[in-house]
Amino acid sequence: MDVLSLTSILNDDPELCSIFDYKAVQKYIELINLLKPKLSAVLKLYQHGPPPTLPINVHEFLKLCFCMSNYMGKLAWDRLRTFAWNTPFDSGEESSAVLKQMELFLAFGITRGIGIYNLEPLTRVCIDPLCTKELTSNMHILCDHELGDPRTYPITVFTKELGALPGFSTSRYCNSMFVT
Q1: Residue 79, exposed/middle/buried by CB under 10 A (0-12, 13-18, 19+)?
Q2: Do both 82 and 122 map to the same domain?
Q3: The whole model's pTM is what?
Q4: Could you list the pLDDT tens digit for every one of the 180 residues in the chain?
Q5: Number of domains in the chain
Q6: Which domain holds residue 141?
Q7: Using CA atoms, how far apart are residues 105 and 160, in angstroms rounded to an integer?
Q8: Is 36 helix (H, G, I), strand (E, B) or coil?
């Protein structure tokens, strides 16, 4: 973690310092890294970096984790998102973070559709090579059909280290498959 950059962010915003000390920022970064697959699924494929705003369920989850107001939750994401997004886990940190933050996910995440594990499709477009559509701006260009109608279901993930843990699985389908 780049402590100098973090110090600069916190020094520029005294309001943020009222909620976040160094340990709280570490916890925030761990939670963002654990939520990153879920947040990345919300983003379009062409977009890189953190989303400008959080989905409401993630925002509410983080608010409860840090006992902060709606305003402070938005301020924290606005000021810390780039830093948190660009501070990835190294190989051993993820399982350690899951252990440390499991209680928060169980207490505040499950009821908001956020599991310790969130399984998303590996692709956002139909993988059938014959499934393409004409681009409306240029009828000679074809593009892939984006998978739509996401449906999320509660699941149980069985892990070697921690046993059975609650999670969510999201499935999507291609709308063109049902059009004749």
Answers
A1: middle
A2: no
A3: 0.79
A4: 577 777 777 777 888 888 888 889 889 999 998 998 778 766 654 367 788 889 999 999 999 999 999 999 999 999 999 888 988 887 678 878 888 999 999 999 999 999 888 888 877 777 777 776 654 555 555 566 777 778 889 999 998 888 899 999 988 878 775 544
A5: 2
A6: 116-180
A7: 19
A8: helix
